Every structure is written in structure tokens, then in C-alpha cells.
């Protein structure tokens, strides 16, 4: 039975509400709990939180929780389980984990001490190796680890630090003290998710967050960024966050960190080494990289010296590092300290190197590479957990990470014993860990659930700075010993409760000595490529939806008596089929069914839904450059078009859905035009839109304004280019071929005409950097200037389908020239000339 709970509340109703939440709260026997102390009473800091929540009605609490879920979706916070292609929405727990300031000081001091110790271990392992020579550490613990990167032996990192960003997995032991469960140095994840959790929770309960004096995260990130900048020893260093790419499990977090810290998010293909220096490929040529925050595992960093199959790394990167020409956080090889084998030796190493005991002890570990330790583990196997000494999977037991000795039957125990005696160095025995519990909100009440906490530390000029909070994972089951975000766990915000009100710290610099810059950063070629195609996909989706809308409108009109305008319907169907927006015409497929397939079909690459998904993929690669509002609308467009794939719909239903999708695209266009900074990134986004719109205008003109076109077809063209009102205001007579073609192709004042797009394309190209020193125009601009001049002197009366088709082909050649000049094309992307700008 649960112990009696007592809590003070401001009103009787609030008191009754809180009492109902905790009435059945029952942590497992002998397991520490965050909410309830050993005396069975609610801890004071939790009492304050529950007292405030108790003053809210059930409806208000539900509304706040629902708003938190919407914020997570709107912010695009997500993660991906290994092996899955679709992202999952981030699972945020409704309650934070609360840690009093006094307790946090002990945790922070222990994590900082451990980070310093492990940095010293790495320095020794890749340097003098005194620990091995003097018998403090078996050589097999170093050499036997797959994370020991031999090519880095003897390397001296800039500033002497192997570790610059460290994380410790901690849990509360049976006696209530915190223990280290493991170390993370390869590419620690979670800090960005901690930041996203904080943004959501602070907006969900702003008063509660303020009143409880929660320590802020911004100073930690500010100091980390300043430390990386200082390590570069450059006035304006270029700092990159190296990501494995959009299919990384934590890509959303990497995007968030790059955006928040102002780092350049790059993939391996964006980087190139030359003369033992690291450069990023940009639209202005190669630019020197000073610092890299690495989120790619070391083995994949350099295909020349490490994993030759890697497409994530940079050939020659290790040579650049050894020369000291780039600062890496963390150095390749830092993952060595993650091995469980090292845990059994750390207490003695701490006394040897630091002259003091570990402030945060790790769980008891015995490395079975030593006969005495192995025999001791086998003798007490029923009470031990057996884990891999190196890596994540238990040798001889595929798919298992940790095995409890008590769970083995006689055959399994014998097989494990034989394996440990044959190659004991692959195994460690560990104390069986029972995680402590924290309250989570479930069905209108609080229930205890096991949790683990990841705490982050950053190396700064003043020593190690520990993030006041961390990345907390909470299990969805009461008996879980190991937690993974892919196994139904939630993440909780971590509130370190200060002794006094906190300052409103941000990442803004405190010094006034900051040089003003208006052209921020250099645009990587990969980012330019994806922004360009993002613009094209948006415009292509809009063109497809306009075709579907026009078809639905004419199908409605076709029901009227004596309707004779069959030509535009047939031509609209023909264009949709030719574009691959709908499957090959089945005689049994009605025009309305064709329209539905073109809007939300999943079997064709040209449907509006497929195009929207392609736009979302391109946007995901440059997500750090997009506002949350833009990303929300990108996701909303896909979701709205996906509704079409759920089943049959009538013409009015299709028409309504198409109109709503076009409104979303209009909102996207407005956000991009009004809120996107007019730097190179916006130029390429708008270039993509202009190129696609010009090509589509040519195609529409050829299909609906040929010599055999009826007035209805000409009206359809005006509708597709959104120019009916303008045409009627200029011409009192009905639609005529030459005026309609002039408006669609040549009119420089019509934002939907080919001529207008070409003029904008030429203006964009004139503002982009050039690599030529001879004053001659580069290929893309040369094509654009010539095309603009020809359109300006052209006569609409002389336009025909052949000339418009030739114009369309030249626009496609211009797009190819843009790609050849500005986007990644392999080794020929390495340009070294100093860029200049044309007036």
C-alpha cells in the first residue's frame, strides 16, 4: 500500500486535487524516488510544484499539456529510431525532473572532475602511455578497444584538449547517492533536445518556471561557443557542426544546435582538405574551416585512414588534425573512454592522476580480461550483469547489450562461461543497477517510472562548465533497467532549482566591441542546392494544384446544359498525365478520380503530395536556415495533401482541399518573401521558384495557347497564371491569342510571366559571388542576360509552340548551368580563386 502523503496547498480544492494525483503513487520497495522521501512524505521542492499545479483546473492542465504537444510538432522536434526512415514526434514528459541546488552542486563537481580525468587519460593513451607502462592500466584495455584510433597516436590537439564536450550517464543508487552508469565522448547527443525541452516547458508553465527559480541553459551554451571560438585562435573563426545527415537518429537535435549556436551545419561532402587544411565548399569557392564539432563517429571520419566505405567523412581529415590546422570537438579517438573495461580502473587512476577519489563513483565493474576478476564474476554470476567490455553488443549473444546472470538457463550459463574463459577481455561484470524513479503524468494521476540522466560538460578557458540540467530519459514501464528513446521512453526537462532568481541570460555577447556584419556566413554548396530545389518543389506543387483546381472547376461547369468547353478539360487531363501527376489513364478512371490522384496520389512522383514530400526532404536538409513558422507550414502542406490519399472524394471536396493547400503555399511564399534575410540562401530559394515558374509558364502556354486553342483554353491559361483580372482590366474583348501569350510569356510587369522570372533570375545572379578575375560573365549569368534581352525584344504575335518550346529548353539549360557552377559536382567543386562581386 502507498505510504501516507502530506502536502500543503493554498485551497481545499487544490489540496484535494493534489491528494487524488498521489493517492496511488507507490514506488518499488527499496528504490529511491524523486517525489517521495524515505519518510513517505512528498519532498519540499516537489510540494511547491504540485501546489501550483493543484491551483489549475483539470481542463486548464489538459489544455497546457495539449499546447505543449502542439509546440513540439510546430517546432519540428523529432527523432528517428535506427533502421526507420520516418521521423517520430519527440516524446516529452509532462512533468520536469526537479533537482535542488545543493544536490546539483555535488553532481556538477563530480562531472567536471570526471571530465578532467578522462581528458588526462586520453592525453596519456595517445601520448606517453605512462598508465600502461607503469601498470596502472592493462594495455589490452587501450589496444583492444575498437574506438582506439591508432593513426591519432602521437597527435597533439590545438590547446592540448582531447575532450571539449563530455556527457556522463548517471542514476541514483539504492542509498540515494548518484552513480555514473557510463561515459559519452564519441559524439554525445541530447544537449539540443534538452534545449528544446526547456523551450517547450518554459512556455507551457511560465509562472511555475519563473517562481521555482530554474537555472537557465543559455550561459552554458554561450560559454561553450566562446570556448570553441577561442580554440580556433582566429578573430572570426568559421565553426562547423559535422552531421551524418538527415537520416541520423538525432538530426533534428543537430539542426537545433546549429541554429541556436550559429554554427554552419555541414555533411562530409561539404568539406574538403587541401594542403593539410580543411575547407567548406561554398558558392564562393573553398572557405577555411577552423573548428568542427563532430557528430560523426570517429571510424567514419576519414575514408583514407579509417573506414574506407564511409561516405560521411572527409578524405584527409586525420592528416589535417595531426598538423594542428583544425580544432575538433571531440578528437577522433575520444570514444576510447566510453568502454566499460575502463570503468574498473578509473577509481585508482583518479587517485594516481588527481590525488583524490572520484566525487561521483561509477557502478562497480570488473574487467574479465584479468583472471582474478573474471573468476570472481563467474563465481557470483547470479548477482551480476554481464556487458560488453567494448562496444554495444555482447559477444556470442547477438542482439543483446546486457545480460543478467540470473536470467540464463544451464545451457546459456555454460555457453557464457566458456566464452568468458576463452576471451575474457570482451566482457565485464557489473553490479546490477536498479534505476530510481521519478513521477510522470498518466491518466490524470502521478505514477513512478525509472529514469536515467545524461549530464553535459564543456571545456572552457575557466575549466569545465556543466550544463545546469541535462537529458533525462524516463521509461514507460516500472521494471525497466535500461532505457532507449526507441523503446517507448519519454524525455523530461531537468530543472535545477536555484537559490535566487536567475538572470535572463541569452547568447548575445556582453561586449560592445562587436564588428557589424550584414552579409552573414558563407552558403555551402549543398545548402544552395537544397534551397534551390526547395523553391522549385514549392512552385511545382503549386502548378500541379492549379491544374487540379482548374480541372475541378471545369468539371463542375461541364454539368451545365449546352456546355461546349471540352477542349480545356482534355488538355488539363493530358498535362497532368504527361507530368506524371496521375497514373497512366485507365479508361475506367473518371476525370474526378484523376484529379484526386494528381492531388494526393502516392504511386506517382508527380502528384502534389509526392512533390510536397520532396520539398519537405529538401527543407529538412537545410532546416537550420528555416524559421519554425516555415517548417510548420512545410509539414502542414504535406499533412493536408496526405488527406487525399485516405479515400475517395467528390469534386467539391477535392476542390476545397486544393484551395486549402494553395493557401498554405501562399502563406509559405509570404513568409519567405517577408522574413527570409536577403542573403545568398534566399537568392537560391527564389532562383528555384523563378526557374520552375518560368518553365511551367512555357508549358502552360504551349498546351493552352496554340493555334487551335479555343477561348475556353485561353481562359484556362489565364487562370493557371493567375492573370484573369489583369487581362480583363486591359482588354474589353474576350481572350485573344497574341495578348494572352504576351501576358504569359513576355510581359515584364506580370509576376507570373516568363519575362518577369528571367529578369529576377538575372538580378539574383548579378548579386552572387563570382570566381572570375577577368571581368567576363560566368555561364549562368551569361545565359540569363542573353535570354532576358531576347524576351524584351520579342513580339507576341510571332510566338508559336516551337519558339516557346525552345525558350523552355534554354531555361532548363540555365538550371543545369546553375547546378554546374554552384552545387556539389565532386572534385571539380574545389575552386581556390578569391571571390569578387560584380556591381
From TrEMBL:
Residues 96-475 form the Circularly permuted ATP-grasp type domain. Residues 523-823 form the DUF403 domain. InterPro entries: ATP-dep_Glu-Cys_Ligase-2, CP_ATPgrasp_2, DUF403. PANTHER family: BLR2978 PROTEIN (PTHR34595:SF2), BLR5612 PROTEIN (PTHR34595). This is Uncharacterized protein. It comes from Methylosinus sporium. The lineage of its organism: Bacteria, Pseudomonadati, Pseudomonadota, Alphaproteobacteria, Hyphomicrobiales.
Amino acid at each position: 500500500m502507498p505510504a501516507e502523503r502530506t502536502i500543503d496547498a493554498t485551497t481545499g480544492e487544490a489540496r484535494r486535487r493534489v491528494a487524488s494525483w498521489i493517492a496511488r503513487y507507490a514506488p518499488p520497495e527499496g528504490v529511491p524516488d524523486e517525489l517521495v522521501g524515505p519518510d513517505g512524505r512528498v519532498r519540499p521542492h516537489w510540494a511547491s510544484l504540485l501546489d501550483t499545479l493543484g491551483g489549475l483546473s483539470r481542463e486548464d492542465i489538459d489544455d497546457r499539456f495539449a499546447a505543449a504537444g502542439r509546440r513540439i510538432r510546430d517546432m519540428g522536434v523529432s527523432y528517428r529510431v535506427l533502421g526507420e526512415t520516418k521521423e517520430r514526434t519527440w516524446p516529452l514528459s509532462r512533468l520536469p525532473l526537479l533537482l535542488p541546488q545543493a544536490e546539483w552542486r555535488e553532481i556538477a563537481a563530480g562531472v567536471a572532475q570526471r571530465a578532467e580525468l578522462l581528458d588526462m587519460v586520453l592525453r596519456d593513451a595517445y601520448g606517453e602511455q605512462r598508465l600502461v607502462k607503469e601498470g596502472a592500466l592493462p594495455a589490452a584495455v587501450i589496444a583492444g578497444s575498437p574506438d582506439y584510433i591508432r593513426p591519432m597516436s602521437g597527435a597533439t590537439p590545438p590547446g592540448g584538449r582531447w575532450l571539449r564536450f563530455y556527457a556522463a550517464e548517471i542514476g541514483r543508487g539504492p542509498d540515494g547517492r548518484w552513480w555514473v552508469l557510463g561515459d559519452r565522448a564519441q559524439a554525445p547527443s541530447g544537449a539540443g533536445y534538452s534545449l528544446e525541452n526547456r523551450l517547450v516547458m518554459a512556455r507551457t508553465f511560465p509562472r511555475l518556471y519563473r517562481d521555482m527559480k530554474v537555472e537557465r541553459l543559455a550561459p552554458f551554451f554561450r560559454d561553450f561557443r566562446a570556448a570553441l571560438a577561442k580554440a580556433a585562435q582566429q578573430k572570426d573563426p568559421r565553426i562547423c557542426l559535422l552531421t551524418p545527415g538527415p537520416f541520423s537518429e538525432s538530426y533534428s537535435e543537430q539542426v537545433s544546435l546549429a541554429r541556436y549556436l550559429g554554427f554552419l551545419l555541414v555533411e562530409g561532402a561539404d568539406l574538403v582538405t587541401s594542403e593539410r587544411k580543411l575547407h567548406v565548399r561554398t558558392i564562393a569557392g573553398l572557405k577555411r574551416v577552423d573548428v568542427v564539432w563532430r557528430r560523426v563517429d570517429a571510424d567514419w571520419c576519414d575514408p583514407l585512414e579509417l573506414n574506407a566505405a564511409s561516405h560521411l567523412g572527409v578524405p584527409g581529415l586525420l592528416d589535417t588534425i595531426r598538423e594542428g590546422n583544425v580544432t575538433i570537438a571531440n578528437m577522433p579517438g575520444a570514444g576510447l573512454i566510453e568502454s566499460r573495461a575502463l570503468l574498473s580502473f578509473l577509481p585508482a587512476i583518479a587517485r594516481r592522476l588527481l590525488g583524490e577519489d572520484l566525487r561521483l563513483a561509477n557502478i562497480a565493474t570488473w574487467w574479465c580480461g584479468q583472471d582474478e576478476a573474471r573468476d570472481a564474476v563467474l563465481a557470483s554470476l547470479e548477482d551480476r550483469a554481464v556487458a560488453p567490455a567494448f562496444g554495444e553488443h555482447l559477444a556470442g549473444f547477438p542482439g543483446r547489450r546486457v545480460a543478467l546472470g540470473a536470467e540464463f538457463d544451464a545451457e546459456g550459463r555454460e555457453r557464457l562461461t566458456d566464452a568468458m574463459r576463452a576471451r575474457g577481455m570482451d566482457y565485464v561484470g557489473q553490479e546490477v543497477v536498479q534505476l530510481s524513479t521519478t513521477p510522470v503524468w498518466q491518466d490524470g494521476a502521478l505514477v513512478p517510472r525509472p529514469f536515467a540522466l545524461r549530464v553535459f560538460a564543456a571545456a572552457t578557458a575557466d575549466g569545465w562548465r556543466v550544463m545546469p540540467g541535462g537529458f533525462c530519459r524516463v521509461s514507460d514501464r516500472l521494471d525497466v533497467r535500461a532505457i532507449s528513446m526507441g523503446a517507448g521512453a519519454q524525455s523530461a526537462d531537468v530543472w535545477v532549482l536555484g537559490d535566487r532568481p536567475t538572470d535572463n541570460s541569452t547568447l548575445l555577447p556582453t561586449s560592445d566591441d562587436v564588428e557589424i556584419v550584414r552579409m552573414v556566413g558563407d552558403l555551402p554548396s549543398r545548402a544552395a542546392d537544397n534551397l534551390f530545389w526547395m523553391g522549385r518543389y514549392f512552385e511545382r506543387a503549386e502548378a500541379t494544384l492549379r491544374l487540379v483546381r482548374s480541372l475541378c472547376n471545369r468539371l463542375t461547369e461541364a454539368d451545365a446544359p449546352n456546355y461546349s468547353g471540352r477542349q480545356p478539360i482534355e488538355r488539363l487531363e493530358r498535362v497532368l498525365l504527361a507530368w506524371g501527376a496521375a497514373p497512366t489513364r485507365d479508361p475506367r478512371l473518371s476525370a474526378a478520380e484523376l484529379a484526386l490522384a494528381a492531388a494526393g496520389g502516392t504511386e506517382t512522383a508527380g502528384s502534389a503530395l509526392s512533390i510536397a514530400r520532396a520539398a519537405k526532404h529538401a527543407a529538412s536538409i537545410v532546416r537550420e536556415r528555416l524559421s519554425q513558422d516555415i517548417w510548420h507550414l512545410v509539414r502542414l502542406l504535406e499533412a493536408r495533401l496526405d488527406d487525399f490519399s485516405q479515400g475517395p472524394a467528390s469534386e467539391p471536396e477535392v476542390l476545397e482541399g486544393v484551395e486549402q493547400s494553395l493557401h498554405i503555399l501562399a502563406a509559405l511564399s509570404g513568409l519567405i518573401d517577408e522574413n527570409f534575410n536577403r542573403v545568398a540562401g534566399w537568392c537560391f530559394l527564389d532562383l528555384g521558384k523563378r526557374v520552375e515558374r518560368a518553365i511551367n509558364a512555357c508549358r502552360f502556354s504551349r498546351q493552352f495557347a496554340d493555334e487551335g486553342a479555343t477561348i475556353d483554353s485561353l481562359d484556362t491559361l489565364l487562370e493557371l497564371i493567375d492573370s484573369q483580372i489583369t487581362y480583363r482590366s486591359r482588354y474589353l474583348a474576350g481572350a485573344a491569342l497574341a495578348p494572352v501569350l504576351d501576358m504569359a510569356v513576355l510581359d515584364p510587369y506580370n509576376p507570373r510571366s516568363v519575362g518577369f522570372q528571367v529578369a529576377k533570375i538575372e538580378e539574383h545572379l548579378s548579386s552572387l559571388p563570382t570566381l572570375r578575375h577577368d571581368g567576363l560573365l560566368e555561364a549562368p549569368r551569361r545565359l540569363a542576360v542573353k535570354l532576358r534581352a531576347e524576351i524584351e525584344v520579342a513580339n507576341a504575335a510571332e510566338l508559336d509552340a516551337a519558339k516557346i518550346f525552345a525558350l523552355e529548353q534554354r531555361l532548363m539549360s540555365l538550371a543545369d548551368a546553375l547546378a554546374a557552377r554552384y552545387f556539389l559536382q565532386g572534385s571539380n567543386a574545389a575552386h581556390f580563386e578569391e571571390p569578387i562581386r560584380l556591381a
